[in-house]
Amino acid sequence: MKISFLQNSLKPGVTQREVFSWALYDFANSGYTTVVLTAVFAAYFVGTVAGGASWATLVWTLGLSASHLIVMVTIPFLGIWADRQSGKKRLLWVSTVGCVLATLLLATVAPQAIYWGLFLIIVSNVFFSWGESLIAAFLPELAKPEAMGRVSGWGWSFGYIGGMFTLGLCLYYVLSAQAQGVPATDFVPITMVITAIVFALAATVSLWGLHEKKSPNSSTLIESFESDISQRIDKQKKVSLFQKLLQTWRKAQEFPDFVRFMWCTVAYQGGVAVAITLAAVYAEQEIGFLPQETMVLIFVLNIAAAFGAWVLGYAQDTFGHKGALGLTLVGWVITCVVAALATNKEVFWWAAVLAGLCMGSSQSIGRAMSGLLSPFNNRAQYYALWSFATRLASIVGPITYGLITWATGGNQRWALVSTSLLFILGLYLLSRVNFKQGVVQASNKPNRK
């Protein structure tokens, strides 16, 4: 049965089943970020694997930053290949399998196994990040330009439901295990297994129902093979990954508002990355939350995030993408200040709910704006630049937080205050983006090859 208001948001020929399959991938992979990066493994690594050392938070952020650096270097190349070969779905299968297997292996990380834990986090997050960029590149193929915001919001809110589903299963198991006196060293590994299984099952259903549209500039596999052989024979035609990155960035200069928005993304997503990767660490180290309390906190945060992504998804299409994003960035500044001043769990709860509302909406809006500012026949390549920007942000934000925490002897409140400056910088850079002009330019001027 078709739902009229959903169908009216989709491009001709796109079925509601396709959109559900696309959104289901957000449902599938959100368990990884929710359980591994936010609610469970992050705090477990800092408090148990690294023994709560003063340098533990910095080491955790360094590991994540290493994974983001790998993504920054490789994702433009993957985007170029995906555009030429219409290969987003094939690469998505690879990234999914890689992330699921690495998440399963996280169950083997024991106390003091710092290097093994870091290695698996790096590998799993690289595969996850590749998948995040690839699934985002499907959005412009599904939604009409005027409905990009709400369709992105559907996917992002469904993703938070997926995160809550996986976290809920883990929370049920943890509470049962704790009632029987099972220690964290035994129940945390099982939560990694639960997360990997949910990811694998939901992503498989998603990918079976997801169809890739033929790119206007795609070539056949034979043509690609012949091209690759000729490039290997002619050394002058060889292009390194770094050179491909530079080429992509040079092409993007033809769309100055897209470039300005990428710098804005680096700033505000740096703050969002802190919230995603260090919320549980802050709650337990500074506010005194117990592991099960932290999981409940993140569960509620995901409810707020799903609501924020859904509501702001419609609001941005009605009242403007730029204004909606600016509103969420103001909310982020308030969140950082309240959380930094919080001295009890009740106040921190309010900050967490506001963070959830801002988190879902700011990420969803950013994904939609990136699609609208990109030339239509190079969307995967330009979404690779968006992914590059978010990965750079995921280095800048957490590393700054980790360094300040280490330099102040473990004081994370000052680190959180510094995070608010990233959102303020994002607001300033957003004010310099002429969004309407950028959309018109991207629509009328296909990027040259």
Question: Your description of this structure?
Answer:
By secondary structure, this protein is an all-alpha fold. It has one domain: MFS general substrate transporter like domains (Growth Hormone, Chain: A, Up-down Bundle), CATH 1.20.1250. The chain is built from 18 helices and no strands. The protein has helices at residues 4-7, 16-39, 41-49, 56-85, 88-105, 114-136, 139-142, 148-179, 184-209, 221-233, 241-252, 256-287, 291-319, 321-341, 345-372, 379-407, 412-431, 435-444. Helix 5 packs antiparallel against helix 6. The two termini are 41 Å apart. Mean pLDDT is 84; it is low at 216-239.
- Mean pLDDT, to the nearest integer, reads 84
Question: Biggest sheet, open or closed, and with what strands and sense?
Answer: none
- What Rg, in angstroms, do the CA atoms define? 21 Å
Q: What is the name of the CATH topology? A: Growth Hormone, Chain: A
Structural class: mainly alpha
| Shape field | globular
Low-confidence parts = 216-239
The ordered string of helix (H) and strand (E) elements is: HHHHHHHHHHHHHHHHHH
Number of helices: 18
Total strands: 0
**How far from one another are the termini?**
41 Å
The CATH architecture is Up-down Bundle
The CATH top-level class label: Mainly Alpha
Q: Determine the CATH superfamily.
A: MFS general substrate transporter like domains
Give the fraction of residues assigned to helices: over 70%
Total number of distinct structural domains: 1
